[in-house]
Amino acid sequence: MSQLPNNTYALALHGGAGPVPGRDYTLVETHLRELATECKAMLASGGKSLDVVEFAVAEMEASGLYVAGRGSAPNTAGYVELDASIMHGPSREAGAVAAMAGFVNPVRIARGVMEKTPHVMLVGAGAQVFAKKHFYAEIRDPKSYYVLPIGVTDDEIRDKRAHGTVGAVALDQSGALAAATSTGGTFGKLEGRVGDTPLIGPGTWADDDIAISCTGTGEHIIRAGGAVSIACAFRSGVPLDKAVTDMLDEVKRLGGDAGVIAVTRDLSIATLYNSDGMKRASVSTQQALRVTTFA
Predict the structure, then answer these.
(1) Is 8 considered catalytic here?
(2) pLDDT band, very low/low/confident/very high, at 156 (cuts 50, 70, 90)
(3) What are the CA-CA distances from residue 25 to residues 15, 162, 216 (Å)?
(4) Which of 54, 56, 94, 126 suits a disulfide with 168, CB 3.0-4.6 Å?
């Protein structure tokens, strides 16, 4: 790839694939625009991509506008379980948590796993112990904390196909790529269910050349190879859009739907999906800010 000036950067955010046609996502798009603008300023001032993707995902988790963090629905046992992951491209360091309950920002705990343990993933009770030990923000009253994202209906909660995820990918001025993803999982999921989001490879990936975050039906993304299959194809010379589309086509063939955001070292950005839409924003030193859901 050609060498780019040191002052270049790129960013993409997603608020989940599978939005409902006809529903008004103006408030979500406004939030994505404001968040992308803030992240752009961080990158333009020399901020690190790892810090930016953690910040972006944490903001989306706390907003209650997406099926992640505060906007998540209970599992079949009646309580919320959250999954998240984060990855730093230059070092390949990664952290993840799954089946987390009672904490505000699972993506921050995922970064803690990456930086404070020799492990990549902690789940369930062990993740809870780790989070408490390191004083991550806890939810004091789950009944009042969690809110359904705007427009979500009781029928959708009962529909186990309904889902949502948030994610961020970024390239900073040093050329470092990073990715992060977080979810509350599919509505009506079984207790202990884990999809692609916290899995380094299927749901989240970053290396020297590309950073990727996936959203959609996690079981199908896992079976289709997910993010790392895109990265391998891209590394072998397949154009970015084709590498993403090939994975999405495989998800569709297997019976699922998905979306992908990706940023490469040469400032290419992909925000592609095979569902009805994907809430998303993207910007770089070569591209003006774009925010949309269906277009």
Answers:
(1) no
(2) low
(3) 11, 17, 18
(4) 56
